[in-house]
Amino acid sequence: MNSKPDIDIVIRYLEDPENVQHKKLLNDWIQQDPGNLDIFLDMKDMWHGDPLPAASAFDTQGQWQHLDAALDKVPAAPPATTRVVKMQRRYWWAAAAVILIAGTITWLGPGRYKTVTTAQNLDSLHLPDGSTVYLNAHTSIRYARSFGKDNRHIKIEKGEAFFDVTRNEALPFTVDAPDVEVRVLGTSFNVKAADAGVKVFVQSGKVSAAWKGTEKKVILTPGVEASLKHRGSDINTQVYSKNNNILAWKTRCLVFDDSPLTEVAAALSDFYNVQVNISNGQLADKKLLATFRNMPLDEVLDIMRKTLQINISHKNNLVDIY
């Protein structure tokens, strides 16, 4: 179970997440034990209003008694403003939550969830049910340690992942993305959770993409992508040809089959994580026929420059085509 100093570290960060010192202390604490990350994520959910997961076999009353005893030893705080008093109350509410979480995690093992996060690298993960997940850079997913036994539920908190799902009609495979739920039996599909919204692209099989808490959903078949924008209600779909670059991050290959320059710019922007502008509108309809297999951006731009006889500049994260 976490000690009070650990509670202090988590609370201070949640109260002021932009504080550099608080971030460092939290990061050091998470590095001490892999289970600490799961504890922190659960506490963060409750801090923002998510309910505490039920744990019928957990001695809740005993933990509250333990908390009361700890609070009795805390010296009285000096008079404070109304705002500070509210923060203190929230502080001890969160401290109680951490004790409950820690007890629950002890009961279920070293964390109820497994969390996988990538930095600037790609990664792949074989799940207990035989399915495989391929993770793009800067992606974070979570799944229960009981995955494959009584559930096949994965939460993608940010980033992009490709799922190759083993078919199991008795246990549907679901992906929880921000505001969106994806449900399948056995298929392969891509989910991208970005700031603007969630995109779901199907490579094989059928996938249901739905707004959480509503009846609004769409059934996707191979080659179809659904776009669900945050704070929206519509589900827009688009059919792609076989040669598209939605999965280029996974294959490390960009294919342009007489693709207009606007489409090329969008693909380059997504693949290389840069901003690509077409300053000269007359170039938008130029077509590119080329294949780039895991090539550096500057080499790609040089080939485009010579092939299309256009001007291209690249500085920092900005590419200008003119």
The CATH architecture name of the largest domain reads Sandwich
- Quickly count the helices: 8
Large-scale geometry: globular
Radius of gyration: 24 Å
Number of strands: 18
- Specify the CATH class of the largest domain: Mainly Beta
Share of helix among residues?
Answer: 25-40%
Q: Which structural category do the helix and sheet elements fall into?
A: alpha+beta
In CATH, the topology of the largest domain is named Jelly Rolls
Distance between the ends: 60 Å
Series of H and E elements: HHHHHEEEEEEEEEEEEEHEHEEHEE
Question: What is the averaged pLDDT score?
Answer: 79
Low-confidence stretches: 50-61, 70-93, 96-110
The count of domains is 3
Portion of residues in beta strands equals 25-35%
Name the features.
single chain; 322 residues; alpha+beta; Jelly Rolls; Phage tail protein beta-alpha-beta fold; 13-stranded mixed beta sheet; 3-stranded mixed beta sheet; 8 helices; 33% helix; globular; sigma factor antagonist activity
